[in-house]
Design goal:
Shape: elongated
Helix content: 55-70%
Strand content: under 5%
Order of helices and strands: HHHHHHHHHHHH
Number of strands: 0
CATH topology of the largest domain: Endonuclease Iii, domain 2
CATH architecture of the largest domain: Orthogonal Bundle
Structural class: mainly alpha
Bound molecules: iron/sulfur cluster
Largest sheet: none
Oligomer: single chain
CATH class of the largest domain: Mainly Alpha
């Protein structure tokens, strides 16, 4: 790997090596959550919207009850805000509660109750940005679609030694890395793997470089050694 790629996109070969090591790590260390046990795009979409500002264990607390009460688009489109508020109370999302009914109504009206299968259509929905769209497409539909959140951005910065703007999630070269990363076989697994890796190993404050399977090629680890 080039020692100092800075604002360039790393080579496809480097990204493939990075990807295969993360997936190997994930095969032994993946986390299990109810929204990972379904391919129902409606449940994946709603879970991903909840996960944007909330911890996974909080979402786990409401997941079963929410989808028992509202198992599909039609049921959630008809939900009363007060009832939704009660169920979602542990998430502390009171001000966002109406958005869940709203997104369901948008799917019903614009897309005949079918969760869209393209990024362009998904991002027309309330509460759905590039990250949630990429997550739904890759996790529910297994499409080769990229995701970048602040954790993934941090990992790219550290491992590849790239420079980014302040909110680098929208930088072209960052998105290019994420696209190449998701462009191979099994994008669902690859994207879940990088989410778990950034949550458990390459964490914000104390990355576990000692035990990290990427350390030999990681720019940050090489600088610190
Ligand atoms: S070696 Fe350290 S900084 Fe590099 S990817 Fe692993 S945990 Fe992150």
């Amino acid at each position: 790997m080039k020692n100092n790629p800075k604002e360039e996109t790393p080579s496809v070969k480097d990204i493939r090596i990075f990807r295969s090591r993360i997936i190997r790590w994930f095969n032994k260390n993946s986390r299990t959550y109810p929204w990972r046990e379904t391919r129902d795009p409606f449940k994946v979409l709603i879970a991903e919207i909840m996960l944007r500002r909330t911890k996974a264990d909080q979402v786990e607390q409401v997941y079963e009850r929410l989808f028992t009460e509202y198992p599909d688009v039609e049921a959630m489109a008809n939900a009363e805000d007060r009832k939704l508020e009660q169920i979602l109370y542990p998430l502390g999302l009171k001000w966002r509660t109406p958005a869940f009914g709203l997104v369901a109504r948008e799917v019903r009206e614009k897309y005949k109750c079918k969760i869209p299968e393209t990024r362009e259509e998904l991002t027309t929905l309330t509460g759905v940005g590039e990250y949630v769209a990429g997550a739904v497409l890759s996790i529910a539909y297994d499409k080769k679609e990229w995701i970048v959140d602040s954790n993934i951005l941090r990992l790219f910065r550290r491992y590849f030694g790239i420079k980014t703007s302040k909110d680098g999630r929208r930088d072209k070269h960052v998105i290019e890395i994420a696209k190449i990363y998701a462009s191979e076989r099994n994008p669902r697994k690859a994207n879940l793997a990088i989410l778990d890796f950034t949550a458990l190993v390459c964490t914000p404050r104390k990355p576990d470089c000692e035990k990290c399977p990427l350390r030999k090629r990681c720019h940050y680890a090489l600088l610190c050694s």
